[in-house]
């Protein structure tokens, strides 16, 4: 199972370092994808910002929104945000220098790992992984025992 932070999720839709590795994992047969509903909001924010900054056209914005909505419905196991999924948040922000959104993502990923009881490996032998490109969030997640998939590192080496 691959839990996607928005820093990785955007690489499916926009050309940037790590895009190839992300798309490969995103479309890999048997890959189970998950993301918090925060990523849903953040993805729409990223698309709208790129439109406002004239990096993409209105037609491209519309196409990206449709593609993202379809992918979200068909491919992503959405993790709702509630007291259970956010239970680890107070301790995370106490121990690590996380922004609030990053702490939300990490708390949700930790809850999912424990909730689905995938632990260190899935039926296919692949570990539960936290897909993240942000270095501070990745370092914090590693300290919490998560295996990290950073597509930027995969692209470089």
Describe the structure.
- The protein is of the alpha/beta class.
- It has a single domain (about 1-155), classed as 5'-nuclease (Rossmann fold).
- It contains 8 helices and 5 strands, in the order E-H-H-E-H-H-E-H-H-E-H-E-H.
- Strands 3-2-1-4-5 form a 5-stranded parallel beta sheet.
- Helix 3 (about 35-50) packs antiparallel against helix 4 (about 60-75).
- The protein is globular.
- The two termini are about 25 Å apart.
- Mean pLDDT is about 90; it is low at about 120-125.
Q: Strand count, sense and closure of the main sheet?
A: 5 strands, parallel
Tell the overall outline: globular
Quick one: how many beta strands? 5
H/E element string? EHHEHHEHHEHEH
Strand order of the largest sheet: 3-2-1-4-5
Distance between the termini: 23 Å
The stretches of 5 or more residues where confidence is low (pLDDT under 50) are 119-124
Q: What is the level 1 CATH name?
A: Alpha Beta
By CATH's scheme, which homologous superfamily applies?
5'-nuclease
Write the CATH architecture name. 3-Layer(aba) Sandwich
Instruction: Kindly report the average pLDDT value.
Output: 92
Rg, Å, rounded: 15 Å
| Number of H- or I-type helical stretches | 8
What's this, in brief?
The protein has helices spanning 6-9, 19-26, 37-52, 58-75, 89-95, 100-115, 135-143, 151-156; strands at residues 2-4, 33-36, 76-79, 129-131, 147-149.
Topology, pairings included?
Elements: E1 2-4, H1 6-9, H2 19-26, E2 33-36, H3 37-52, H4 58-75, E3 76-79, H5 89-95, H6 100-115, E4 129-131, H7 135-143, E5 147-149, H8 151-156
Parallel strand pairs: 1-2, 1-4, 2-3, 4-5
Helix pairs in contact: 3-4
